[in-house]
Predict the structure.
Amino acid sequence: MSHDFPIRVYYEDTDLAGIVYYANYLKFIERARTEWVRGLGIDQGRLRDETGIVFAVRRIEADYLRPATFDDELVVTTRMQGTTGARLMLEQVVSRGAERLFHAVVTLVCLTETGQPARFPAEIRRLLGVALH
């Protein structure tokens, strides 16, 4: 299951050259991941409050392919690549029309309130299993 999240590039997203500042792509894909998780029916605030578990980025592999500029209409597509009991691997692509601008592979993990690794709760594993198929 893939999820598309539209984003428009604002002036504040650009650098002196008039292109999207590289770190803002990470913000774009974070917003898209949050909406993807919400779309699965996972309430991250409730998860934290009830279990003390939060999702955290463990690793990002990113490729900047082409620049986006002010006022571009972009789409962030999020696709689940796989999951284990404690990790979630996602592919995220930022596109302008049919043109791929940015590609990332993101690994998420669960952490406890004290920052210790944790397994995904059973209900989260179930929802992720549904999303994978």
Summary: The mean pLDDT is 94. Residues 2-132 form a domain with the Thiol Ester Dehydrase; Chain A fold (CATH 3.10.129.10).
